[in-house]
Amino acid sequence: MSVAKRLKTTWSGVGSHVVVLSHGFGLDQSSWDDLRPALDTHFRVLSYNLAGCGDDGASSYHRDVHSSLFGYADDLLSLLDEVHAQSVSYVGHSVSGMIGMIAAVARPECFEQLILLQASPRYLNDPENGYVGGFEQGDLDALYEAMATNYQTWAAGFVPMVMGVGPQHALSRFSETLFKIRPDIARHILKMIFQADHRATLSRVAVPTHFIHSRKDVAVPVDVAQWLHAHVPGSTSEILELEGHMPHLTQPDVVREALMRRLLPLMGVAT
């Protein structure tokens, strides 16, 4: 099976420049629906489902391959090769931020720029090195146990905690895509994400990188945004006056404007 078919790839839009949209944990490519029409006007837009996510996500997930973010980065690079896309603008949310950076270190020629929303290289606090990731190990152990004990009850609390304030339809959309993930796969993916530490990768990112973060995010505090900006060479960063880990769902107009400020200059359009 082709990579594009396995990951349920969707193309839309017009233009010569390709924008790749890669979603975060618990979501699927439908999370970009509110932003996509504006992007389609200027760009060819490619989205896909991360392995394990979306409709029939279990068929795309292989526990040995996807036991680290390197497997997901390989998926991304294989997809770009298969569709003959190079020098793309990559927009990654949450875990897809690190997936994009890992892929860009391996194959920088594939990317013109990275635009990363709510990215984090490490979610655990590391006080010995002055790093604030947002979580203590005990908190995460309790989260994994709750997922294993009663997935539905865990999800009912996880959705509003991560999203922060937001309209009911946005909460419902996240709940819907979260429940599409098989519970054992969701637990394995989330544990892999939360226990990872990719800080050493960042100094090797040579592709122009722009970070976008909400002012208040329980999953990725502003300290992480500042740390990323300081450790990715030549990167730029902006903090949006928003709350929650999924502002493209809860405040899509604000995120859309931020994305277009980075993308439109590629087309010679003033912002």
From TrEMBL:
Protein name as catalogued: Alpha/beta fold hydrolase
The entry's keywords: Hydrolase
Domain AB hydrolase-1: 19-258
Top-level taxonomic group: Bacteria
InterPro entries in UniProt: AB_hydrolase_1, AB_hydrolase_fold
Molecular function GO labels: hydrolase activity
A Pfam family it matches: Abhydrolase_6
Protein family according to the UniProt entry: Belongs to the AB hydrolase superfamily.
